[in-house]
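User: Design a sequence. Structure:
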């Protein structure tokens, strides 16, 4: 469905979609661990907290 929506004039074949999926899965399996995921999420949360505190500071001015 997404293939038809995104690229309705020239949709990918099933085998192309399957190969892309396999490639993404293989890359994810090789490059991510629970520790790495946790550190990424922690860094994102810290950025969000900094942004929120800046917004609150600017709103209080």
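Assistant: Done.
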């Amino acid at each position: 469905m997404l293939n038809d929506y995104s690229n309705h004039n020239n949709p990918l074949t099933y085998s192309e979609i399957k190969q892309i999926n396999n490639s993404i899965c293989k890359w994810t399996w090789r490059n991510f661990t629970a520790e790495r995921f946790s550190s990424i999420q922690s860094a994102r949360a810290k950025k969000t907290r900094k942004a929120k505190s800046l917004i609150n500071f600017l709103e209080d001015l």
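The CA atoms of residues 32 and 53 lie 30 Å apart. DSSP finds three helices and no strands in the chain.
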